[in-house]
Design brief:
The chain has helices spanning 2-23, 28-51, 78-91, 109-115, 123-131, 142-148, 162-170, 205-218, 249-267, 274-279, and strands at residues 54-56, 67-71, 95-98, 118-119, 135-138, 174-181, 188-193, 197-199, 225-227, 233-237. It is an alpha/beta fold and 289 residues long. One of its GO terms (cellular component) is membrane.
Length: 289
């Protein structure tokens, strides 16, 4: 698929940058900034050409200081890579992101994950990042949401509230983010996304249950993926949820979930449809970043 070629090209670029880093160690600290800038530009170009990607509400991302961005996890979160590139280009900031452990085991991916500042966690590390004034993104649903969620974009967070405790401990506001998908603190960001990629088993209940069981058992997404369609993608940033010292993690998690659901209800066509998303490539709704 097209996105595989794009990722392969980025990996090769990062490897070349690393070799250059070894050869010119005297000013290596500038090379990674250059590498991130180039990778972000490549991602941004791919997003514009292949998906007509738009971000609505970029002004809600702070120019400085911490922010926790909460987002819905698609089968393949390609839109979030695009979103991180936009932040780097327009804000000059790197957004750390919590990734599933299995991603770090994919051969050749560790270097790219380092470039994009992906981390395993744990909670203490997330709090440290926010207290240091950085941006951090978390998808409470994670891979489970990617496997189970369907064209109705149901939120699959279970009882997870660790992200809320992180926000409370770091005393930051949360931003909510959702990418409108067709066919897919202080702030928490709400985002809505178009379904550019899907999990194969969604069409078959028995296989769906099997692949979910395999994930719960081995913590690895065995489900095959399909997609890569050049559908329209739009990311919407919701209003930040201010820090409240009196709120509990359970209350904050529920409040955040409701806010993300509100973004989905407002911006996402239900159910998602590939053909309508393809047609939207020829229709611009509003001014974008």
């Amino acid at each position: 698929m097209v996105w595989c070629g794009a990722i392969g090209g980025l990996l090769e670029f990062c490897k070349l940058s690393l070799r250059k880093n070894v050869l010119k160690e005297a000013y290596s600290h500038n090379l990674w900034d250059g590498a991130r800038k180039t990778v972000a530009t490549l991602w941004d170009g791919h997003a514009a050409v292949w998906h007509g990607y738009e971000v609505h509400g970029m002004e809600k991302i702070p120019e400085e200081g911490p922010a926790l961005i909460i987002f819905y996890h698609g089968a393949i979160p390609i839109d979030f890579y695009y979103f991180m590139a936009k932040i780097f280009i327009h804000k000059g900031r790197t957004c750390r992101v919590v990734a599933d452990h299995f991603v770090f085991k994919i051969p050749g991916f560790s270097l790219l994950l380092d470039v994009f500042c992906a981390i395993h966690g744990p909670r203490e590390k997330c709090v440290e990042i926010l207290r240091s004034g950085h941006l951090l993104a978390i998808s409470p649903g994670g891979v489970r949401e990617a496997l189970i969620s369907d064209e109705t974009y149901n939120i699959v967070w279970g009882n997870r509230k660790g992200f809320a405790q992180v926000a409370i401990d770091a005393k930051v506001m949360r931003k909510l983010r959702h990418t409108e998908m067709k066919g897919w603190r202080d702030p928490v960001t709400q985002q809505v996304r178009s379904r550019a990629y899907s999990s194969g088993p969604r069409a078959a209940g028995t296989l769906h249950r099997l692949f979910r069981w395999l994930y719960e058992k081995f913590r690895y997404p065995f489900a095959p993926m399909y997609g890569g369609f050049p559908v329209k993608l739009r990311t919407y940033l919701g209003d930040p949820i201010p820090y409240d010292p009196k709120i509990t993690a359970e209350e904050l998690a529920e409040k955040t979930k409701d806010a993300v659901q509100a973004l989905i209800d407002k911006h996402q066509r239900i159910p998602g449809n590939v053909m309508s998303a393809l047609l939207e490539r020829f229709h611009n709704k509003q001014k974008i970043n």
